[in-house]
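A reminder before we start the practical. When you read a complex entry, don't treat the lines as separate problems. The point of joint prediction is that each chain is placed relative to the others, so the output describes one connected object in space. Small molecules and nucleic acid strands, if listed, are placed in the same frame. In the example below there are two entries. Take a minute to note the order of the lines before looking further.
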Amino acid sequence: MRLYEPAVFTLSESTQNIHLPDFITKWVDVGIFVVNREMNITLWNNFMANHSGHSADTVIGKNLFECFPELPKAWLGKKIQSVFILKNLAFTSWEQRPYLFRFPHNRPITGGVDFMYQNCTFMPVKNGTGEVESVCITLFDVTDMGIFQTELRSAMERLSESSNRDGLTGIYNRRYLEQRLATEFDRSKRYGGHFSFMLFDLDHFKKVNDTCGHLAGDAVLCAISQRINSLLRTVDVLGRYGGEEFGVILPSVNLEGAIVVAEKLKQIVAQTPVIFKETAIPITVSIGVTEFKAETPNYEHLIHCADIALYFGKENGRNRVTCYTDELES
Amino acid sequence: MSVAPLTEEQRDAMQEITNIAMGQAGSMLATLLGTFVNLSVPRINVLALSEVAGAIGSMVGRNIEITAVRQSFHGYLRGEAIVIYGRDGCKELGDLMGYDEVLDRADEIELLLDVSNILVGACLGGINDQIKGITEAQGAGELSFSAPSLMAEGVPAEVLIDPDKLTWTHALLLEVNFTLEGRDFISHLCMLMPEHSIEKVRNILDEFIASL
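Here is the predicted structure of the whole assembly.
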């Protein structure tokens, strides 16, 4: 809402009558107001008047918090008081507190925000002897900046989220799975605690691709991912490790607990075939399970152990859960 | 380029100026917060860029996760102040600053910025008031400050200043610690002024010494 009075700009004849700083204070497209020690308003420029709907005449001499009961009095009072006591600037930013005043903004249709976003600076106004007589507050409309930044942030979040996902199944990809495994490993190494890791693999998946086609294979990968994801807790991390191989991180779960989860997982896959174009495709999985121990040297070792156990399961009949032990190494 | 350290005399003079300034800052903060504020005796050093990270680390403690806020100041003196807090920032001070008991994430950051602004303003304002009286700096007037911003959260203190990413070579570092009586709260204020300001500080100090 910009209000200009072009007539005032014809400086030639009227300069003598206008005091330029007063003119600027009054008309600049920034909120400016002043309060004294009693929190009474002593200056209120046009920006403030236009956006608040309260003209200078109606608020000057009145208490700020009585005129605007929606202001957070305890906090804002403290803030203004700090300027009186410390004779120092103070600031508020839209990023932590979107607004002080509930002002309408200039994007009521396209904005998606409820009130004008505001950045404020509080300045001490000193008299000749250096005492702070009042506090001058400038208020900038930063609604557009706020909207752009919020959009940018959500785009960045979506981008980072999609870079963590597997394109086919929508579960996490190998990069993210390893990253989370490394984080979980570091945390447990530092603070102690349990967690388990498992790798599982769809048995004879090549045969599905060969006999039913790659589209059926893809459908199977998606269906099994969904099924298993629904079984896991939200804190668990399911990722596609590669091809038909998947990994699961189970935070705060010891080996015993991980075996229970693995058995359930094996069962939920085996009990119902995946239906693709009216063809029932029976699927089973082999699962290798291992847990973090204080002596585990690095997170890669957990992948190695789960892989060894998985391989053993494959060699010994499939559709089974195998725990890693040192004996499996040979 | 090498920058000479402050002479013994200059350092004493700086100590005297900052002691008076900190005394005033402490009493103003006490009035504002309604609790007694302890400020340490300021430590003053001219440091090479490569030494700053170490100095900050030894002040705060190594392997401690910290949260830091920065704010720039400009006037006769120019530089940046960094306020360093422990892991919990300054949640402990919410009630003193007019917040309700439960702080959400935005409140916590706002509180950090507010407290930092107050500490920086009180200390640097105090120093500026002292040096304003010295002829060399006359006409310098008031210091102005940028809005404070969050610099780092939950990082080790040593990584705060990364020499590889910065272009200055020397800085004057002034450190003060704050504690509050009866509260589990500590923060460290580092005021850093680059080469250009060091020379100005030297001039002021020489003038201060000559006037004694």
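Discuss with your neighbour: The first helix of chain A runs from residue 11 to 14. What might explain this?
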